[in-house]
Amino acid sequence: MNELETKYRSTGLPFVTLKLAQTLDGNIATCTGDSKWITSKASRVRGHQLRAEADAILVGRGTVIADDPELSVRYVNGKSPTKIVLDSQLKIGLTAKIFSGAPLIIATTEEACKKRIKERKKKGAQVWQMPVMNGQINLKAVVQKAALSGLQHILIEGGSRVAASALRLSLVDRIAAFVAPKILGAGTPAIGSLNITSITDAIALENVNVESIGNDFLFTARVKKRPKTAEQSCLLAL
Questions:
Q1: Which of 127, 146, 187, 213 could disulfide-link to 151, CB 3.0 to 4.6 Å?
Q2: pTM of the full structure
Q3: What CA–CA distance (Å, rounded) separates 28 from 18?
Q4: pLDDT attached to residue 133
């Protein structure tokens, strides 16, 4: 039994890899939102290999609106993963590139506009209306449904709030951080607030490996599991 099957059988959840592409000081974009390209072409090729190894790639609405990504495998041989986009208000335009290529799942709320749901289904997307509380999407419910749909390895690619929510809810098993030798100062952090006030409460990593990719470094590690806390009931607003 591999680790994907082990995770699913023991928790009902998929194996989750959190991928980051950031500057040395931990930013994924400048203060104006510019993010192309932080890392090198070699790092982007390796990032596409991670996509090819995953069953699904998950991002938030902000990433799609800011970058209009294809979320496909292009630089290496491999099948493009299913795309999962969190969009509580269905604000992503119907001309976005994500509507082409591999299957698209849009996770939204039960209160989402029926007309917008219908429009997105006509474009070929699946629309999941997920449990909500005060208009917020439950990220754990989304990945749990993904696993039940046969998607046992999810690659989270952004943005910072999605990354933070996945870590708060203890959904992340592995981190793959591409770090470029660049400094931005103020910018968009790779991971949003985790409400950690003490170093002793920091999320610990283990089985750390560091690899040089051109001028960049690829930092991979496993997330050390922590006892469950009230934080794990947090919901994600997107």
A1: 146
A2: 0.90
A3: 14
A4: 57
Q: Please count the residues of the chain.
A: 238
Query: What's at 97, amino acid-wise?
Result: K
Give the Cβ contact number of residue 158 at 10 Å.
26
Domains of the chain (ranges plus CATH)? 3-26+43-233 (3.40.430.10)
- Residue 47 per-residue DSSP state: H
Q: What is the CA radius of gyration of the chain?
A: 17
Structure tokens at 89: 């208000």
Instruction: Tell which residue, 125, 130, 127, 124, has the closest CA to residue 144.
Output: 130
pLDDT (average), residues 186-213: 92
d(C-alpha 28, C-alpha 15), whole Å? 24
- Model confidence pLDDT, tens digit, residues 100-127: 999 999 999 988 999 999 999 999 999 9
